[in-house]
């Protein structure tokens, strides 16, 4: 019985960091959006207004800031390969990033392709007025 308890304890100690690591992107996104409320999703955003202020949420989303609004895109195909060590190369037509546009993911260290993602809708998050 003691071996079973020790085995269960050891398994929980191993699983806890793994579970915490999985929650990190959601927590990172929650921290970014703290105090903000979601608006009606839009299909496109302007690249010229958001290209200098964007944030990767590894394995989860991209966030683009335009003024006081963060636009969050969770991708339409679960972009699990997105990490801090990837470069996002978008393929767009014109100066807007839209639902259905694609992005190649390139390893920042080895400069080789690691995946591709398709953008979904962009959800605006703003601070409530008043």
Distance between the termini: 60 Å
Q: Which radius of gyration do the C-alpha atoms yield? A: 18 Å
Order of helices and strands: HEEHEEEEEEEE
Query: What's the β-strand tally?
Result: 10
Strand content: 25-35%
Low-confidence stretches: 1-21
Estimate the mean pLDDT confidence: 83
Tertiary shape? globular
How is the biggest beta sheet arranged?
5 strands, antiparallel
Strand order of the largest sheet: 1-10-5-4-3
SS element count, helices: 2
Give the quaternary arrangement of the chains: single chain
Give the helix level as a range of percent.
25-40%
**Strand-pairing-aware structural class:** alpha+beta
Give an account of the 3D structure.
The chain is of the alpha+beta class and about 130 residues long. It has 2 helices and 10 strands; from the N terminus they run αββαββββββββ. The strands form 3 sheets. A 5-stranded antiparallel sheet has the order 1-10-5-4-3, with helices on one face. It has a 3-stranded antiparallel sheet with strand order 6-8-9, with no helix packed on it. The protein has a two-stranded antiparallel sheet with strand order 2-7. It is globular. The chain starts with a helix and ends with a strand.
